[in-house]
């Protein structure tokens, strides 16, 4: 099993910054894609940003230019630097990865961390 633990959420004023971290415990697994998703109250979970094992990144249009995703493969840690936060960025942020062991590829999720941006 792969375990993902997020940290770094909190309450911040509009225009402020937060940095989320996701530590992966993945002994025996090769982690492939890692991503951040978020879910606002009453809305579906949406993809925020993704980074491949090779470092290629992609972002939702709503966060381009404000958020930066990165990963430390040696430490199996994923980050999301969030700048110029807006109230509409409020939600629970989830870390996701898919990981391979032997011939199997599986999806894993963290428990989520709350981000609240006040206006």
Number of helices: 0
| Counted beta strands | 11
Radius of gyration from CA coordinates: 14 Å
Structural class: mainly beta
**% residues in beta strands:** over 45%
Low-confidence stretches: none
Keywords:
119 residues; mainly beta; four-stranded antiparallel beta sheet
How would the blueprint of this fold be written?
Elements: E1 3-7, E2 10-13, E3 18-25, E4 30-39, E5 46-51, E6 57-59, E7 67-72, E8 77-82, E9 91-101, E10 104-109, E11 113-118
Parallel strand pairs: 2-11
Antiparallel strand pairs: 1-3, 3-8, 4-5, 4-9, 5-6, 7-8, 9-10, 9-11
Notes on the structure:
Helices cover 0% and strands 60% of the residues. The chain has strands spanning 3-7, 10-13, 18-25, 30-39, 46-51, 57-59, 67-72, 77-82, 91-101, 104-109, 113-118. The termini are far apart. The strands form two sheets. Strands 2, 4, 5, 6, 9, 10 and 11 form a seven-stranded mixed sheet that branches. The protein has a four-stranded antiparallel sheet with strand order 1-3-8-7, with no helix packed on it. By secondary structure, the chain is mainly β.
Structure described in brief:
The chain is an all-beta fold and about 120 residues long. The protein is built from no helices and 11 strands.
């Amino acid at each position: 099993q792969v375990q993902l633990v997020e940290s770094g959420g909190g309450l911040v004023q509009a225009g402020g910054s937060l940095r989320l971290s996701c530590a992966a415990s993945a002994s025996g697994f090769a982690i492939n894609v890692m991503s951040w998703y978020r879910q606002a109250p009453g809305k579906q979970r949406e993809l925020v940003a993704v980074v491949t094992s090779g470092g290629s990144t992609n972002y939702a249009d709503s966060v381009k230019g404000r958020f930066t995703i990165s990963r430390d493969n040696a430490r199996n840690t994923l980050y999301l630097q969030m700048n110029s936060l807006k109230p509409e960025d409020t939600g629970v942020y989830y870390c996701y990865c898919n990981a391979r062991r032997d011939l199997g590829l599986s999806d894993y999720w963290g428990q989520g961390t709350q981000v609240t941006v006040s206006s």
